Amino acid sequence: MIAIRKVSKRFGSKWALRDVNLDLAQGEFLSLFGPNGAGKTTLMRIIATLSKPTSGAVTLNGVPTTRAGGAVRHQLGLVSHQTLLYPDLTAQENLQFFGRMYDVPALPDRVNEVLDLVGLFARRHDPVRTYSRGMQQRLAIARAIIHDPGIMLLDEPYTGLDPHAAEILRGVLQRLVFQDRTVIMTTHDLERGLELCDRVAILANGRIAFEARREEIDVEDFANIYRDHVAA
Question: How many structural domains compose the chain?
Fold first, then answer.
C-alpha cells in the first residue's frame, strides 16, 4: 500500500530526512515515534503529496506520489497540526465543502455520520471559530475521514485534545483498525502510540533508527529503546 524508498529531504543546508525506507501493507498500522525536529512532519507531508522529496520516492498502491492526481489523493486522509478548516463556516458547511471535493455519495447522511462519530453533531450549525482547539481537532478528524480513505496519516493527532476528545480519537482509530485501513500515526505518547499499532518505528535525526513488530516489545522496554535511540 505504501512504499518509501531512500527518501531524503533537504531545506537549505539542513537535511530533515536521510535515506528513509519503510513499507506498509494494506491494513497495517504504523506508529512513528520521534522527538521534535526528527523529521516526522516532513515525512508525513511527503507521503501526503504536499511536499516533494529531494531524493528517493514514495509510491501509494504502486503509483509514485510525484505523479499523484486526484485518484491517488482520494485514497488519503490527513490530520496534521493545521486543521485545514474554514473558521467562518459551520462544521456542517466545512464537511459539505470537503465532501463535494471528493464527490462523496449521499453526502448529507455522511456528514451527519462523521459529525456524530466525533461527538460534534449537536454543534454542527456553529461556526468553527467558536470551537475550542480540541473541538477543531475533532472536526479535522471528521474532515479527514469524510471520503472514507484507504490510507490515514495522523501527525500528532492527540495534540491539544482534552481527555474526552482523546477518547473519541481512540474510538476513531479503533474503527480504522476494524475497517482494515492503512494508518501511519506520529506521536510523542509512547503508551497511546503502542496501543493499536501493528508496527513501530523511531525516527531520529532524519533517519529510521529502530523498527519492530508491536508484539515484539512492551511499553516499559520500548521506553528504554526510545531513550537510547533518541539520545544516540
Answer: 1
